[in-house]
Amino acid sequence: MLAYCALNQLKSSLRALYTRKFSFIGQEIWYPSSRSELDLIDKSYEDCVSRLGASYPGYDDSSYMKWLKNTRNIDQSVDADVTDIVYPSDTYQTWKILYARLRELHLECACEEHKENLRELEQLGIYSPEKIPQFSLVNKYLNYKTGFKLVPCGGMINPRSFLYGLAYKIFYSSRYIRHQSAVFYSPEPDVAHELMGHVPLFANNDFAELSQSIGLRSLGATEEEIEKLAKIYFYSVEFGIVGNQILGAGILGSCDEIALIKNKKVEIKEWDLEKVLKSEFTLSDYQPGYYSAESLLEMKRLIKEGIDFIRPMQPLKRIPVYL
Ligand SMILES: [Fe+2]
């Protein structure tokens, strides 16, 4: 315990040192120049429970809230193996119901790249409705496919830190699962969103390259550039559409949002950088509109052109390739 506290103190001091160093120099912004330096970034997260109070699903369930708090309380090094966690027995029913419903909707509405890898995850026995997959097993699969790695975090972290992770093929993810009283709703990204929405696509090379390319441009970016990159990420990785099929995990993790797209109840515009950058997005409600590219490859091309315009590729001390 003492060693753990000392390590945390050391990390805080190093982070403070870096911040002081670069604010003294002037405009230069610190960024991790190797994957292990990601352990120095700020991973404080939005406290959704405090923000929503009694309207947070499960707020009155003291044993769930205690488990939720413990599950968020993580200090995971990016290079260490992710240790397994114990899910309370009643969360298995939540997973089972949600898995079956999402699976059915995905077959109908998800893009081919997502469906192909979801099928593969099932064939390999990593995914099933019976058990919430542990990150350790999912990471072995992702490492083999694209080199991406899920690293648990406490909740929604700030965009800069999150994008820095993508640069090094680290995807900061939640491990808690929504409360059983609200199986089809979560006020913040939970493990169902990460595993059912994101993981099958992070196992696709084009999608992995697209995501990493956004992250790479964030290294040392200004606040204005981070804001633009976050919008590009948001309207592709989280809420993108390709053709008539869904790519974004923000949609693929939500039964209601899939239904909105499926039933054409929302506006879907052609993916266009200028329009994307002018759009506002919300993290707590459905999006005012969505953007669609012809295919995943076309979206990748549009984004590559877009980020080159916003922030040309910077020379890095070490090019992060983890495959
Ligand atoms: Fe997400």
TrEMBL record:
Domain of life (superkingdom): Eukaryota
InterPro entries in UniProt: ArAA_hydroxylase, ArAA_hydroxylase_Fe/CU_BS, ArAA_hydroxylase_sf, Aro-AA_hydroxylase_C_sf, Aromatic-AA_hydroxylase_C
Pfam family, one: Biopterin_H
Entries under Gene3D superfamilies matching the protein: Aromatic amino acid hydroxylase
Binding positions (Fe cation): H193, H198, E238
Family statement drawn from the similarity comment of this UniProt entry: Belongs to the biopterin-dependent aromatic amino acid hydroxylase family.
Name of the protein in question: phenylalanine 4-monooxygenase
